[in-house]
Amino acid sequence: MSVGMVGAGQLARMTHSAAIDLAIDLVVLARSEDDPAVRAGARCLIGEPDDPQALARLAAEVDVVTFDHELVPNDMAVALTEAGHQVRPGARALHAAQDKLVGRNAFARAGLPVPDFAGIDRDPAAEVVRFGDERGWPVVIKSRSGGYDGRGVAIAAGPDEVSTAIASLPSSLLLAECYVPWVQEVAVVGARSPSGDWVVYPPVATSQVDGICHELVMPAALAPPVAGRVQELARTIAEALDATGVIAVEFFVTAADAVVVNEIALRPHNSGHATIEAAATSQFHNHLRAVLDWPLGDTTLRAPVAATVNVLGAADGSDPARLLPQALTVTGTSIHLYGKAAAPGRKLGHVTSLGSDPEETLARARRATALLTGQPTPP
Amino acid sequence: MSVGMVGAGQLARMTHSAAIDLAIDLVVLARSEDDPAVRAGARCLIGEPDDPQALARLAAEVDVVTFDHELVPNDMAVALTEAGHQVRPGARALHAAQDKLVGRNAFARAGLPVPDFAGIDRDPAAEVVRFGDERGWPVVIKSRSGGYDGRGVAIAAGPDEVSTAIASLPSSLLLAECYVPWVQEVAVVGARSPSGDWVVYPPVATSQVDGICHELVMPAALAPPVAGRVQELARTIAEALDATGVIAVEFFVTAADAVVVNEIALRPHNSGHATIEAAATSQFHNHLRAVLDWPLGDTTLRAPVAATVNVLGAADGSDPARLLPQALTVTGTSIHLYGKAAAPGRKLGHVTSLGSDPEETLARARRATALLTGQPTPP
User: Fold this and answer.
1) Which of A111, A139, A279, B116 lies at a CB distance of 3.0 to 4.6 Å from A132, suitable for a disulfide?
2) A378 to chain B, minimum CA–CA distance in Å?
3) Do you find a cis peptide bond into B138, omega within 30 degrees of 0?
């Protein structure tokens, strides 16, 4: 069987590794031969994700088309399906991940807990101010599409911050939301097949730095009913959208243990990287199995706790590949580099460690990450 | 850093997966673009492993040359070294794995326990009969080189079986050995770097069917002093040969818990496949780290027991890739297919399972393997 993946970043790179295990023929649609998945040896077509001809060429070569990002225009996903190709996740599900307003509306219709929100239309500043005055401040203003790694989100504490916040956003199509006073951010990664099979990994505690996902601990320290609730909500969302493949749902947890749906992604996700080492089946294997409608794999953890720390490019442009021998002195860590050119703040890799104590396990991954980026090593 | 690997079979394929994690540029010398490592996307040069020009082209492209088999003529490995290339393992160590008589002599000189043996020279049948009459029957007759997966080994129970046994062997350069009355075969996989760092995995119990390694359980059920002894012997051999990279040593264990060195390989080995899932660092990662003289990785097991069953091509030519969806119903197994065309008896993949009870763990891997090869599933 062959799978076509639109995009050739690190998610496609790690999907390629899983495809090797199962002798699945993976073809990626890459922008460049320097893309991480192509450098890992994935067979590629070169083309843009919003070029209908490139998408058609990819779809013609494979049994199933899937995605490592959300940048395919939704009408092109619809067109692929109408041309008779298997597109997983399907265009409708994809839409909820591509356009945050579409997603929010779908979740609200399904009765899911979302922040109070409103689409922003012709007169953004005035509409956001009115939203804040009516529903309360601060207001979170988001680009409806194209945001990732902290781009596309701004917070206005009051009316006088609205214009600056809007000006910082890359897109003019916006969404306003009430700020959720969360005490913990968690993510749930699951996988759903066209036959309706569902598997889910334990919730992950995520921490962001400047909006970029930075550290993850699996399982998150949640009261068991909360852990069960977020896992069930992830399933409900997957079913409501008829999503196929991996789905990642990010939640806010409040001091009162209320949970609110934040973002979703319909693809393997940074929150699930630890599953490579920590779970019986990785999210990348389960994504391939799901989009091929094969039986899904066991999500049981092999260790009490797993921690992942992202390797973000250092300010001085240090190349983690050159610092690898030092970082490999930290025993009990698994280093993944994505084969990207180093640049400040760029996600260049990640480090996963397994252990029994969350603090010690996270500290080990942090030490290796610090060595990879030429930073002082934490204790 | 870049590593050149002579050979592009399944060992090179799995080494490529490890190279992806560490963003190491792996280049394989492949006979064909259909070779397993090339199908997995490893960058390749096409050439024969006994073509000095092909070897020189590979060496010119990379920082270090290593091997996925023993088929490079030793003088060519010497020539690469003399031309200034880093060859790991070095030619002298490689010789002991390439020519069983060279190996036996080296081990005997180092005071290691080996079966009583003799090189066979001009008059094979007469010399083997004399060897058996003097040292005892049965006699094991081996091709000094080129044997693998049971080829190159024959047993003569008495003088009248010698001619037939010799006729069955592929090479005319032979070695005779006393048969060791073993009760268990075990293998030890370790890795040694040029700096002298050494790591070793727990011993593995191996079982062969028709001379082909078929099932492996790690750790082998050995008395602790025996386990420690075979691990120490593996280290002694690696140091005596000044070997670098992964070394696998196969041992016979007798009823009295005596251990005798059988074969060695200076490369990742079938006995170590379970380390992909079962160990903190796989043998493929450690091979790369060792040949690059980087710090070696933790060999601790992540589960009490790991079992591996090889997927050997069924007599009817069933293709495991087509039977994968059925086999994936067996939870708690990790399937690896090598991307080879199915042929009876051919090693097409392997299945590893982790667990706590050796019998149950092995049974799970056997069930998935049976489903992959269209055989009746064992209980």
Assistant:
1) A139
2) 20
3) yes
Q: What is the pLDDT of residues A334-343, one digit of tens each?
A: 999 999 999 9
Fold agreement (B2-87, B182-372): no
Q: Tell me: ipTM over 0.90.
A: yes
Helix (H, G, I), strand (E, B) or coil at A127: helix
Q: Locate the chain B residue with the closest alpha carbon to A355.
A: B302
A2-87 CATH choice from 3.40.1160.10, 3.20.20.70, 2.60.120.10, 3.40.50.20: 3.40.50.20
Mean pLDDT across chain B, nearest whole number?
A: 95
Chain B positions touching A292 (Cβ under 8 A) are: 325
pLDDT greater than 70 at residue B148: no
For the segment B57-61, the average pLDDT, to the nearest whole number, is 98
φ/ψ of residue B357, rounded to 5: -105, 125
Task: Report how far residue A29's alpha carbon sits from residue A45's, in angstroms, rounded to the nearest whole number.
Answer: 5
Q: What is the pLDDT of residue B105?
A: 96
pTM: 0.96
Contact B297 A331 (CB under 8 A): yes
| d(CA A34, nearest CA chain B) in Å | 13
Angstrom distance (rounded) from CA A85 to CA B199:
50
8 Å CB contact between A247 and A190: yes
Structure tokens at A325: 């021998």
Calpha distance A35→B98 (Å, rounded): 40
Considering only alpha carbons, which residue of chain B is nearest residue A275? B277
B182-372 has which fold? D-amino Acid Aminotransferase; Chain A, domain 1 (3.30.470)
The pLDDT-based confidence of B378 (bands split at 50, 70, 90) is confident
Determine the residue among B10, B11, B13, B20 to mutate to test chain A binding: the one whose Cβ has the most chain A Cβ atoms within 10 Å. B20
Dihedral of alpha carbons A355, A360, A362, A364, sign? negative
Backbone angles phi, psi at B267, to 5 degrees: -175, 170
Q: For chain A, which residues make up each domain, given as ranges?
A: 2-87, 116-178, 182-372
Q: H/E/C letters for each residue in chain B?
A: CEEEEECCCHHHHHHHHHHHHCCCEEEEEECCCCCHHHHCCCEEEECCCCCHHHHHHHHHHCCEEEECCCCCCHHHHHHHHHCCCEECCCHHHHHHHHCHHHHHHHHHHCCCCCCCEEEECCCHHHHHHHHHHHHCCCEEEEECCCCCCCCCEEEECCHHHHHHHHHCCCCCCEEEEECCCEEEEEEEEEEECCCCCEEECCCEEEEEECCEEEEEEECCCCCHHHHHHHHHHHHHHHHHHCCCEEEEEEEEEECCCCEEEEEEECCCCHHHCCHHHHECCCHHHHHHHHHCCCCCCCCCECCCEEEEEEEECCCCCCCHHHHHHHHCCCCCEEEEECCCCCCCCCEEEEEEEEECCHHHHHHHHHHHHHHHCCCCCCC
Q: Do the Cβ atoms of B325 and A22 come within 8 Å? A: no
Distance from CA of B182 to the nearest CA of A (A): 35
By mean pLDDT, which of A213-217, B56-60, B233-237, B283-287 is the weakest?
A213-217
List A301's β-bridge partners, or say none.
Answer: A279
Look at residues B208, B209, B133 and name the one whose alpha carbon lies nearest to residue B176.
Answer: B133
A336: chain B residues, CB-CB within 8 Å:
21
Q: Looking at CA atoms only, how far is residue B208 from chain A in angstroms?
A: 24
Alpha carbon distance A355, A277 (integer Å): 11
| Annotation: CATH topology of B116-178 | Dna Ligase; domain 1 (3.30.1490)
Residue appearing with tokens 């080879």: B340
Nearest CA in chain B to A333: B280
Q: Is the pLDDT of residue A84 over 90?
A: yes
pLDDT of residue A300 exceeding 90? yes
How far is residue A374's CA from residue A237's CA, in Å, rounded to a whole number? 41
Q: What secondary structure letter does DSSP report for A374?
A: T
